[in-house]
Amino acid sequence: MMYNRQKLLLQVVKKLREKGIDSKTYLVKALFLLRQKFGFEAVGYDFFPYKYGPFSNEIYSDFNALEKEGLFNEATLSLTENGLALAEKLKEDKEIFSEVDKIINSYPGKTEIKKFVYDNYPEFTVNSNAPRMIRNNSEKGICSIGY
């Protein structure tokens, strides 16, 4: 039996690969953004602050389960032929996949999606080991050195 979240994971991986994205970091951040927008019921993953921002153990458990089923290859972050065939048969939630398209179009790479998540969800980056991203939006000003 396959969980709904595993079906969603297959479909999201398929969509990301179609756009040439093969980053686990990107995938986790994209699923996090879907979770923030649609809630747990729609996405099925819980996230907590970890070393590189929001993290979900369930995603990695699902990687292993789908790999054992012969549907997914974690090393290449890609679907097998059977996984691809199954993902194409599954009914897509149009609203969720419209949002996946928006995410991909708004954040074409790992750096962009990471910056967005770090800037907009700082509560999920408190345990992060990643260097803080430098923001370019600081105001210029003059200051005194204390005379």
Which consecutive residue ranges, at least 5 long each, have pLDDT under 50? none
- Shape, per Cα inertia axes: elongated
Largest beta-sheet characterization: 2 strands, antiparallel
Strand order of the largest sheet: 1-2
Level of helix content?
Answer: 40-55%
Beta strand count:
4
H/E element order: HHHEEHEEHHH
How large is the count of helical segments?
7
* Helix and strand composition category: mainly alpha
Distance between the termini: 72 Å
Mean pLDDT: 89
Percent of sequence in beta strands:
5-15%
The number of distinct structural domains comes to 1
Return Rg in Å: 18 Å
Question: What does this entry look like structurally?
Answer:
With 147 residues, this protein is mainly α. It has one domain (4-124). Helices cover 54% and strands 7% of the residues. The chain is built from 7 helices and 4 strands, in the order H-H-H-E-E-H-E-E-H-H-H. The chain has helices at 4-18, 24-38, 40-43, 57-68, 81-89, 94-106, 110-120, and strands at residues 48-50, 53-55, 72-73, 78-79. It has a two-stranded antiparallel ribbon with strand order 1-2. It has a two-stranded antiparallel sheet with strand order 3-4. A hairpin with a 2-residue loop joins strand 1 and strand 2 (53-55). Helix 1 crosses helix 5 (81-89). The chain is elongated, with a radius of gyration of 18 Å. The chain starts with a helix and ends in a 27-residue tail after the last helix. The model has no long low-confidence stretch (mean pLDDT 89).
